[in-house]
Amino acid sequence: TTREGLYKLLSHSEYSRPNRVPFNSQGSNPVRVSFVNVNDQSGNGDRLCFNVGRELYFYIYKGVRKAADLSKPIDKRIYKGTQPTCHDFNHLTATAESVSLLVGFSAGQVQLIDPIKKETSKLFNEERLIDKSRVTCVKWVPGSESLFLVAHSSGNMYLYNVEHTCGTTAPHYQLLKQGESFAVHTCKSKSTRNPLLKWTVGEGALNEFAFSPDGKFLACVSQDGFLRVFNFDSVELHGTMKSYFGGLLCVCWSPDGKYIVTGGEDDLVTVWSFVDCRVIARGHGHKSWVSVVAFDPYTTSVEESDPMEFSGSDEDFQDLHFGRDRANSTQSRLSKRNSTDSRPVSVTYRFGSVGQDTQLCLWDLTEDILFPHQPLSRARTHTNVMNATSPPAGSGGTNPGSNGNSITTPGNSVPPPLPRSNSLPHSAVSNAGSKSSVMDGAIASGVSKFATLSLHDRKERHHEKDHKRNHSMGHISSKSSDKLNLVTKTKTDPAKTLGTPLCPRMEDVPLLEPLICKKIAHERLTVLIFLEDCIVTACQEGFICTWARPGKVGLLSSQNQANSPSGTVV
After folding, report:
1. Using an 8 Å Cβ cutoff, are 504 and 233 in contact?
2. CA pair distance 272, 220, nearest whole angstrom
3. Which one, 88, 174, 248, 255, has least CB within 10 Å?
4. d(CA 414, CA 433)
């Protein structure tokens, strides 16, 4: 149950292997799901691809409308000696007769297949001469029919063109650009061949990357705990952020491209402002690593202060969701929000996260967090953040946003630490997260001791263990191209980044509490996708679940209900 209503799990809409047997997931790659709409005449154009172990399936996705028919996959493939790890459809070229699907593999290859025509058109990095490590992420470059980007656990990313071959020898590279902890090389050869570019980013595996909605920027998260955001065309580093500790595992952009959310091994979700290049909030709700973060473009709302203006609607964000329509009215309203001369606009961004703790968390990012130095009269504080707007250190004056509990600080002192939001470690969160706004300070401090304790204890424990592989990357101040110098600089103590703008201390940024935090699976969750009438999740057992949005479950006809295995909606 959320403030917008009830999300219902549709048991008959569950996709899995045809035999419905839970997959023994030990040691295998994460289950991933990709969607594409082929715009066929029937109005049922959604197609679904997912990998389970050595298997890859391609189905018609009926969503909230009809029960899943698992006996009829359009295409099914079983691989030997390597496993699919990730995949991506080209939305530009998809038709009812043909789709282009890229599949990355655990041994480093990338395959281009057409599951409708049942063709395998090409295999890239076939001899593993380009990279021998596991493919962690593969995506078509937005707006392109032929370019795609592939990330590996080696920490390298490669730009390919489907038209070009990979050559019969290992590629020779020439340095194109080098910067703080990254380098980009072009491929040196007589005739054009793949890869067109090789990016080396950070230390350790590059776990995921995501293109901004306008396709101009690329956000990468790595095992060294860094988020790095690049201008994709000019190959310039736009900004960086460091996790609280451990590697960052997942990343996503807000529909308007203004915020990036990451999740990782610190069990936190972190919200980073693209414009200000700084952490604006962290969210604590998961009890283990966060495996996927995603914005919900259909619940993200924008409201003008003038009541005559209509508020942000689903349609506004629909195209944006696929990164196509840039000049759209909601986006322009969002950008207007930051300009000083316009009337105030009320903004709430909704995003979700799933983790290895088998829990789904939904979060709201509201006015009081996004614009902390403005009066909170119109803010809707679903986030339950208390006094989250202390003035910056040394600024003096009163806190503008604490609903009357103004805290006065002398000009040169450090502001009082931000209280934790009242998130209890267990499922009590869902009860606490009704609609309470900025809480009374006395209750808050009592409740928040609990949350503070768990976070600080965990921090101490982690420092004792001193994860060597996660602590490999510090902030490199030198732009020296001297490789040796660069390597020694890289091994700085992560404690040096803590308390800097790269990685503010816990008490220096607002701590969000999830709206809901619910255990929804038996095995770790690996998929979270927001569609117009449902949310799709999947776990490592290979079950892909559909959660109907409030009011959308009625789309199912009674006949389909009768035909479904249980006939009930859980």
Report:
1. no
2. 13
3. 174
4. 30
Mean pLDDT within 138-145: 97
CA Rg value for the chain? 24
Cα angle for residues 390, 396, 402 (degrees, 5° grid): 30
Of 194, 238, 253, 243, nearest to 222 by C-alpha is 243
Identity of the amino acid at 477? S
User: Residue 91: which residues within 8 A CB-CB, separation 6 or more?
Assistant: 36, 37, 140, 322, 324
| pLDDT digit string, tens, across residues 299-330 | 988 765 444 333 344 444 333 333 333 334 44
- Which residues, in sequence order, are CB contacts of 327 under 8 Å at separation 6+? none
Q: Let me know: does 325 contact 303? Beta carbons within 8 Å.
A: no
C-alpha 161/C-alpha 105 separation (Å) is 18
Closest C-alpha among 47, 45, 48, 52 to residue 17: 52
The alpha carbon dihedral of 457, 461, 464, 466 has a sign of negative
How many C-beta neighbours within 10 Å does residue 420 have? Answer: 25
Helix (H, G, I), strand (E, B) or coil at 75: strand
**Reported pTM:** 0.74
Pairing of strands 278-284, 511-512: parallel
Give every CB contact of residue 4 below 8 A, 6+ residues apart in sequence. 299, 550
Show the tokens assigned to 467.
Answer: 């994860």
Q: Give residue for tokens 């208390």.
A: 386
Whether the ω angle into residue 195 lies within 30 degrees of 0, i.e. cis, is: yes
CA geometry: angle 26, 31, 37, nearest 5 deg? 170
- The answer to whether 220 touches 209, Cβ cutoff 8 Å, is yes
Of 203 and 41, the structure prediction assigns the larger pLDDT to 203
Q: Residue 506 gets which letter from DSSP?
A: G
At 45, the amino acid letter reads G
DSSP state of 415: P
Mind listing the domains of the chain with CATH numbers? 27-154+156-201+529-534 (2.130.10.10)
Measured distance CA(441)–CA(385) in Å, rounded: 11
> Collapsing DSSP states into helix, strand and coil, what is residue 559?
helix
Is the pLDDT score of 564 beyond 60?
Answer: no
pLDDT class for 445, splitting at 50, 70, 90?
very low
Q: Are 230 and 195 in contact (CB under 8 A)?
A: no
Q: Residue 77 forms beta bridges with which residues?
A: 56
Q: Which residues of 429-452 are buried (b: 16+ CB within 10 A; e: fewer)?
A: beebbeeebbbeeeebeebbeebb
